[in-house]
Amino acid sequence: MDNLINSITSTSYSGITLTLSMAIVAMAAALIFGLVISLTYMGTHKNKYQQSFAITLTMLPIILTVIILFVGSNVARAFSLAGTLSIIRFRSAPGDPEDIGYIFFDIAAGLACGVGLYGYGALFVLLLCLFMIVISKIKFGKPNTTAKNLKITIPENLDYEGIFDEIIKKYSKDYTLQKVRTTDLGSLYELTYSVNMNKDADEKKFIDELRCRNGNLNIVLSLAATALYGK
Questions:
Q1: What residues contact residue 116 under an 8 Å CB cut-off, 6+ apart?
Q2: Residue 116 in contact with residue 26, Cβ under 8 Å?
Q3: Chain-centre distance of CA 36, in angstroms?
Q4: Helix, strand or coil for residue 116?
Q5: Residue 96: phi, psi to the nearest 5?
Q6: Contact call for residues 129 and 37 (beta carbons, < 8 A)
Q7: What is the pLDDT of residues 7-43, one digit of tens each?
Q8: Where are the alpha helices (DSSP H) in 46-117?
Q9: Residue pLDDT, tens place only, 42-75
Q10: What pTM did the predictor assign?
């Protein structure tokens, strides 16, 4: 009976017999690493993260660890796994570069557990988590400006050439008039600017000053696509 249980719960892994206890230790370590990484991600992003992504960061290390344990040194299993993964299609939109970095963080932690390097894995997770917390606290790499799109509607009889330049320069580092189009059957013009707003700019005062020049018509100030992906 003992031989039967051992044959079910053990297999060859890189020349070493993988037992049930070894698998449990590897998966437990991967789960702990995943939790630490996920908590670090949530702590450095506050309310700017999705719950589903935080849960995924917890799952990935243990999933990868199990895959490594199953494959071991078996070449046939490795090729089968590669063939299975090749049929998967990822159709999601490109994510935040930092989120992608956390996914690779998870992968490295899962690999460390899968090959049994728990000490090095723990050191790696600890150091990188501390590093991410520190650079989040000091706001490393945060720009002094925010990229925004500005749309100003003006009446057709208003000469828009340079009329808003003085105001925009006051509240931004630089700007570009990207597009001019007519609207409402040609009775109005819509100007679209790309503006790098100063970090401490008062947006309400900015819009109020613009309204005094465009006859109190519509003004839209929104985050540019680059600012949305870069938080």
A1: 22, 26
A2: yes
A3: 17
A4: coil
A5: -65, 135
A6: yes
A7: 434 444 545 567 888 889 999 999 999 999 999 999 9
A8: 51-71, 75-86, 97-114
A9: 999 887 888 889 999 999 999 888 888 877 656 5
A10: 0.64
